[in-house]
Amino acid sequence: MEKIKILFVDDEQYVLKSLRRLFDDDDYTILTASSGQEGIEILEKESPQIIVSDYRMPSMNGIDFLRKAYIRKPDAVRIVLSGYADTAVVIEAINEGRIYKLIPKPWNDDELKIAISNAIDRYLLHKRNVELTEELKYNNEELTRLNQKLGQLLKEKSVLLEFKGKILANFQNIINAIPVGIMGVDFEGIMAQVNEEWLKTAGIGWNYLGENIDSFLPKELVLFIENIKDYGVAEKHVIINKIPGKLIGTLIKDETENQKGVIVTFIRTDKQ
Q: Could you tell me the pTM of the whole model?
């Protein structure tokens, strides 16, 4: 917690001495000035959190001093000490001078100490509110920046996905044009890629894409694909749906995405 400094301004030295004695037992730094001008000079060097000024002082009264103090130290809590005869004048000045409290002279020591304690609480609360406001402002700015960055990333991601979609569409068109059956199976046994020639040969539809090959391929073909996983390549003459042909299987790896799969081609031998 920051060290609390209190500036007392009064043209009577005995008043300043009384105020200093009153707060001797408290953990405050007490500053004193015998005129408004001396108080201004202290504010050029020090930053008291609480400023207490007598109202009636020669040359510069307490209200004028506190107005100038506000310009230099706007966060400080300002208090006026005033005789009873000055109360009406001071209250009017308080309304236009950003002054926290009027304490009558002669003061009650206990009431003055409570007023100072409350003023310190007010200062600390205001300081915390300012800190929270700045923190909230920073967080809002950071959130705005992150939202903008996220929006840009989503836009770039959308463009990338659209680009990848076009590549996949072109790739599908290419393998559909190849006059041999082509099927891609991942290591979980899911049919991940296929062309139209394979579908016609196997007698299945596009709805089998994404399904496990155990559910629709002959056991002979499933075992053939398992052998490719073990040995990397394999060849076999087979008959699929009464169509004779040659199966060629190759293991493929994508090290960047840590993916493995099998590509199988079926070349008909009845058309050669």
A: 0.56
